[in-house]
Design a protein that fits this description.
single chain; 304 residues; alpha/beta; eight-stranded mixed sheet; 51% helix; 12% strand
Amino acid sequence: MSLKPKPSELTLGMLGAGEMGAALAARFGAAGYETLGLLKGRSSESLARAREAGLRDAGGAARLAAACDIIFSVLPPSEAESAARRLADGMGDGGKRVWFVEANAISPDLSKRIAGFFRDMNAEYVDGGLVGSPPGSANRPRLYVSGRCTTRLQALDGIAFDLVELGFEIGKASGLKMAYASLTKGINALLTAGLLAAEEMDLLAPFVNELGGSQAELLRRAEANIPRLPADSARWVREMEEIRDTFVSCDLPGGFHQASAEIMDMLSKSPFGTETRRTRDQSRSMLDTVAAVSRSRKRQETGD
């Protein structure tokens, strides 16, 4: 006999209506769960995603906390701390017990600090880290979780994510996310830097030709990823800084990911920095992207 609650027995909350948050909400809705969010002040694109996902506005942090059993925070990392603080301030110490899942790309130290916001609340804090693409009909991301009260999430395992439990210690799940993203996004930043350097030295064509012959997999990765990076680069600046802080806390050099943050910042200030995943030019190539970013940097340096 299944011990999982029926969908009608759980109301879910979602802080964030980006690609990941909206996709999670859509999958929850398709499974029969009511999912509420905080939509005031969100961009028109976020509001459109929320409507498509069936995500309804709760009307404020206090109402969200009062209505929901489990609340997920899936935001740009720069918003994670302030959003959690607003939610905790809206909760007070009464009402029903709420599970708060901090699923943003943040360092273990920041996750522990956010956990402190909920210490005296009627709430359970879950440290989380999402790995993988937004859920669709054929795929689900992994939600890594750690903390003393993660079992409540087992009712949702396999719906919008595959749950992976990492034990009782806050910071384990966010730490795994940091280690993973240090490679996936870090490699993309390094590829961008190498190609920009080649372009600056008027060596882009022979450099790409050499990659195609000796590092074909890296070239394929660059061709697939670099044109889309500007659409996400603004929110990934902080993620790279969180990775830097995580490495430093492990007594490892943080300089590489500080440089990655600077590359992401450079992309965000390029002509393509205002793009989103929905509006970016799908036909633009890696070579076009690198050349345009390089020209943009030169104009910024000269003030033209």
